[in-house]
Structure formats: structure tokens, C-alpha cells
Amino acid sequence: MQSKVSPLSPVLVQVEVQVPWDKVQEKYDENLTRLSRTVHVRGFRPGKAPRTVIKRLYGQRVHGEVAANFIEEGLSEAVRSHDLDIVSEPTVELSPLEDGQPLQITAKFEIRPEISEVKVEGLELSAPAAEVSDKDVNEAVEELRRQHAELRLPEPARASQAGDQLRISYGVEIEGKAREDMASEERTVTVGEDKLIPELDKALLGVNVGDHLDVDVRFGEQAPEELRGKDARFHIHIHEIREAVLPELDDDFAKDCGDYETLLELRLKIREGLENEKKANRESELRRQVIDRLVDANEVPVPPSLVERQRKQLEMEIGAFLAMAGQGNPSLQEEMSNSLRERAEKQVKAALLLSALARQEGTKVEESEIDQRLQRIADASGKHIAKVRAEFGPERRQRLESQLVEEKLLDWLVAKAVVRTAEADSAEA
């Protein structure tokens, strides 16, 4: 079989395969003979029907089988011989199957683009500082106090204040029409902490038990698409007000928070945790930015099928997350999925660039590095290392190796980049 490849774009090729008539006829006769031994034709014993009858009854079916066989065989051979890195199923056209004429197969494949060089010089990053201030520690301690606060009815009874927890019921009208699906009975909310819609948060400060109030709200850009720009009225009844009484900030409080003897010990542990968190956030932000800068610095054509595949994957992940969060609103999922194509395209570009960069720099992972990561997984999961190794079969181990190569490349890129802290940028401005 002869084959020819013609580039149609950096990510699309046309493959033409020509199958000589003698091969087509040989395969056709072979399939027809095999079929004649098994089919039942009325008026003839099994395997005894004349060939002309078999051909008249099943000729078109055999033609289809022969064509399908040569499509698979011919295209597979063409892909191997021309070393095509295909990423999609082909679209195929066939010439009519005529006696004495070769079978012409024309297919179009999406391929990975060839990236001759990945530009990595001069990438500039800006990341938050990793230092932890006394203010950070104090805020974390106060959050712990709020978590350990005792909720009780104010004595004497009073109007609601910031930090109070209110038990309320409410109905909702959108553009004058009641929305039963948005109503709630006996819901608990905390006021004065910017966690509610601003109009509701403001209205619920200074109310008393038994109050009924109507609050008008206009939904903004953060609302689901079906509600954006619409006017709503909340009919609210106040059932109960509870105040949060914070514990004293002393050694007893530290003991209540865990295995600590003194408040100082608790504060030191909090500082250590914040430092680790800020360091991890800084590293994550630098990796995110270096991918963005890498994509911006390198023009890469992307195969549409890879982008669509990644978009669907993101859509599935977001759908699963929304379902777990109890927000399975179809319009919200549709709204979010509409913004995923650009994100998917960027992720595909980044993957293509990192793959090319790994080849360019000869980045590899040693067996010892894979073993170290498996040990970390075992330690984190509480499983024996032998069990973890058994769980990581060839395919999963390959994915882990790819992940480690990517981490190496990102750390290398960050080390090469010019990194400025957010505070330094602010001071210079």
C-alpha cells in the first residue's frame, strides 16, 4: 500500500492511502469464501450455495468489510511509516469500490504541533511574600476564639449586633413572583461578617426577636445568570438571636485547642502552620504564573480535539464539585462551562509546551525519585509501601512520572525567572 501525507495546518494533516486492486480482490475473495461456508441460503445446504448467489446476496456487505479492514490497516501503517503523532480519530473518505480500480482512502488527522524551541528566558513573576506577621498570628488566634465561642441568648434581650447568630425564615419574590425554591425555614446566619448579600447583612443588624421585615435586593454580576440584574424582595421573620461569648485568651484556652500547655506554645504552632501555608501558597502561585508567562511567550497552535477533550474534563469536574456542594443548578453549570474553553485551551498549550521543554532540556525522573514520592504517598495514607507500589501499575506509574517531570520543569522555570514580591512591587509603585 502506498501512502502520502499532506500538511493542511500545523495541527492537521491529510493522509492518502492507495490499495492496489489485486490486494482488494484477494481480500474480497477471501472474505466471500469464508462467508459462503457459514451463511444459510434458502434452497441450498450450508456451504453449497453457488458463489454467484452469495455475491448477489452479500456482496455489498463484503465490500464494506474489506473497506473497513483496509482503512484500519492502511491508516495504521501510514501513521507508523510517517511517524505521525495523532491526537484525534480520523475523518475518512473512500473512493467507490470498482473492479480493476485501486481503493483510495483519504483521511484527516489532528496531530500534535512540532515545537522546535521553547522560549524560557526573561519570564517575570510576582508573588506574595512568605513572611508571617504578628498580625497574621493574632487574626488566627481570634478565629480560634470564635470557633470555641459559646452561643447563648443575650441577657437582657437586645437587638442584633455584628457577630450574632440569627435563626430566621424567609420567602423570596423575584420581579414580583414568589420563588418557593428559594425560600427557607429555620435557617441560621451570622451577621456583620460580610458573608451575606450586603443588603440582607445590613438589614439584619439591629433587629429584634419576632420582627418581620421586607428587604429589597438587586442581584449583581456574582449571582447566577438567571438572577443577574433582577429585583428581589425577601420577607424575613426573626426567630432567635444568639450572641457569641469568646473564651478568655489564656493557657486554659490553649489547652482546650489541643495538645498545648501554654498560650505561647499555641501561638508558636500557629505561626509555624501559617509559615508553611504561605510558603506553599507562594510556590503554587509562582508555578501558576510561570505557566501563564510560558504560554504568553510561546505561540503554539492547538489541536481543537484536545481543547474540546480538556473542556469536557473541566466541565465534568465542575459539575461534580457543584453537585457535592449542593449547587446542581443547570443554568449555573451552563454559565460556568461557557467560560471553560479559554481555560482548556491554555491548559492544552501549557501541556504541549512542557512536553516539548522536557525533550529540549532532557528532563527525566530517576527511579529513586519515584520511590520517594511513593513513600510519601504511603506515609500520608497510612498504607504499607508494598501495597502502594502494587496499586501503582504501569499506567498509573507513568502518570506519576509525568507529574514529577512537570514539577521539575516548573521549579526550574521559576528558578530561571525574575521573581518580585508583591510588597516590593507596591513600594516601587
Task: Please describe what this structure looks like.
There is one protein chain. With 429 residues, this protein is of the alpha+beta class. The protein has helices spanning 21-36, 51-81, 134-147, 198-203, 251-256, 263-297, 304-324, 330-338, 340-361, 367-381, 385-391, 394-416, 422-428, and strands spanning 2-9, 12-19, 91-94, 103-110, 124-127, 150-152, 165-174, 177-178, 184-190, 212-218, 231-245, 418-421. Strands 6, 7, 8, 9, 10 and 11 form a six-stranded antiparallel sheet that branches. A four-stranded antiparallel sheet has the order 1-2-4-3. A hairpin with a 2-residue loop joins strand 7 (165-174) and strand 8. Helix 6 crosses helix 9 and helix 10 crosses helix 11 (385-391). The model is unreliable at 424-429 (pLDDT under 50).
Proportion in β-strands: 15-25%
What's the tally of helices? 13
Largest beta-sheet characterization: 6 strands, antiparallel
* Helix/strand order, N-terminal first: EEHHEEEHEEEEHEEHHHHHHHHEH
Low-confidence stretches: 424-429
| Rg, nearest Å | 34 Å
The shape is elongated
- As a percent range, the share of helical residues equals 40-55%
What structural class should be given to the helix and strand makeup? alpha+beta
Task: Tell how many strands the DSSP assignment holds.
Answer: 12
Nearest-integer average pLDDT: 88
Q: Could you give the distance between the termini?
A: 67 Å
Task: Provide keyphrases for this structure.
6-stranded antiparallel β-sheet, alpha+beta, 429 residues, disordered C terminus, 4-stranded antiparallel β-sheet
